[in-house]
Sequence to fold (483 residues):
Amino acid sequence: MASNAKGVPKSDEKPEKGNGSAKKSAPKRPNAGKENAKEDRKTKPVEAKSKKQPDTDDRRRLPRVAVTPLKSSAMPRVSPPREQPKKVRATPDRDRHSGPPSDSNELDARLKGRLDRLKMKSKEISKNAASVNKIKEVILGYLKSVEPRSKWAEFTSGSYYEKTKISHPDEYDCMFVCEMRVKVEYEETGDSAVFCSLRSLTANPDQAQLPVFHPSLLTDPQANGSAYICPLRFRDHFSRMVQTAIQRQELKGLNIMLIMGSLSSPAVTFEVRQMDGECFSLDVVPAVKLYEWPKPAKLWRCRWKPELEEQIKHPDTSGVHPFVVAKIHKKEKQRAKSGGQCFLWRISFSAAEKQIMKRTDEPTKNVCRKDILKLLKSDLEEFKNSAAPGGGHHGFCSYHLKMIFLKLLDEKPDDEFWTRENLRRSYALALRKVVGCMKRECVPNYFVHSANALDMKGVGKAKYGALVSYFESQQKIYSAGLK
Fold:
């Protein structure tokens, strides 16, 4: 018979019939019911504490931690977080199958099953998209009202709009692009080739045709007598405007918080919580439009779509403009931390990438290029959610996978290689390319090959080694039986 800690039967349990020994071992006492109630009150809180509740901050996999609340709507501040799966050691295809593969047909079936599970739910997509559009409309309206000469415009970018987002529509990216009268000065050397500086064309900051929003965004005059636009000041100025726009506008049903990001990040990140407790992140990136194809990328070729290359390289006629964003160069990080002036801007090829991704899977053709990128991203997500050994971070992100994928498109331009019947072969080759780049610790920028997109500074060697081993194991599994 079940009993509590003091050997007293619980009040809601009946002794078994015909068991005389049970009656003798538990003699009836007048205060037994009260004692049972006291014991229940003592034990229940202990049981509740033993259940580890998911930490609210852990529900998001954002690298930012300091939170500054903005104006709140009428909804409650704290809602039940979405429970995260328990982290376990990453193993190839964990929880996707049981036992070793028996033949190629089984491997093909597993890949198709993985792709089915990576599809986003249409209900989540429509609900989040409505909230994102509402926030973007508020921000753009305010920017146009306070700075009409800058000609602010919205540009949607990122995996959601390129249709390569997996599992949940919980991350969105959006650029707000402005125009400036500047002279672009390129670095054109090594990893710095994807950076440039913006020299102001207005000598006197007091002139009416000042091509920036405020004189405080300019650096001090340099030895050549010119002043440059500081990317860090530009981003901070934009952040203040965006926060003001959201605070002034009542967004019903949304609780929006500013997430403090790293110093070198070009984005202003918000966490948006909806009435039902579901939340997503919105990265808002300020950018400056360029009117010419960047000189460091003049050797770039789009071999699998030559006509697309011709279109992208002429932004004046195609409207596919490159941008620059306020991502701080690694050699200027220390200067930025001490409040010094920064000069270098990161060149963004987001518009060109978006045009290329649009052409990867044309509806009339039986191809699966985007599915390969989705599978690679799911592998990286699986590893990130695991209890990988070692400290620090592994240094790899979906942007690196995208650079490798774009290069693979040029190496395999024919649609026959990317047919759905050839899914496993395409995926196995993509894994081999990823492993090769990881081992060389080099991911060339797709548009500027001399620049390495992979920064190994601060990367934990043990964790990076575990990441390489994981992708290598995936490659061995799905390459089995292929010639």
Summary: Strands lie at 67-69, 153-157, 171-178, 182-186, 195-200, 254-259, 268-274, 279-289, 323-325, 344-348.
